[in-house]
Amino acid sequence: QPPEIKFPLHDVHFNKTLGIVRKACFLALLAPTIFYVLHNVPRKRKYQQFYSHYDPLDAFDRMMNGGYMESCPPGSGGKKDDKDKK
């Protein structure tokens, strides 16, 4: 009588599924971490550097003198107020 050959089919599907789930969990943790380090951290650094030297009044004067605001036409001055002269 030939020897009985046993194939290792016990839990093959379960082990493959478990491996796929492990990889998915690992990638689900790795992808946002990489995105944070490579995208968000440099972006935060750029914003921090920009706003540490940002002067909103100077930016307002540039927009006003450039004619970007309807309420403040170019050359209106903006700083002088007619109500103060009364």
Tell me what you see in this structure.
The protein is mainly α and 86 residues long. It contains three helices and no strands.
Poorly predicted residue ranges: none
| Computed Rg | 33 Å
Instruction: Estimate the helix proportion, in percent.
Output: 55-70%
Number of helices: 3
For the secondary structure, the number of strands is 0
By helix and strand content, what is the structural category?
mainly alpha
The chain-level mean pLDDT equals 85
Order of helical and strand elements: HHH
Strand content: under 5%
Main sheet specs:
none
Principal-axis shape equals rod-shaped
Q: Compute the separation of the termini in Å.
A: 119 Å
Short description:
This protein is mostly helical. The protein is 65% helix and 0% strand.
List the helices and strands and how they pair.
Elements: H1 12-52, H2 56-66, H3 82-85
Defining traits:
mainly alpha, 86 residues
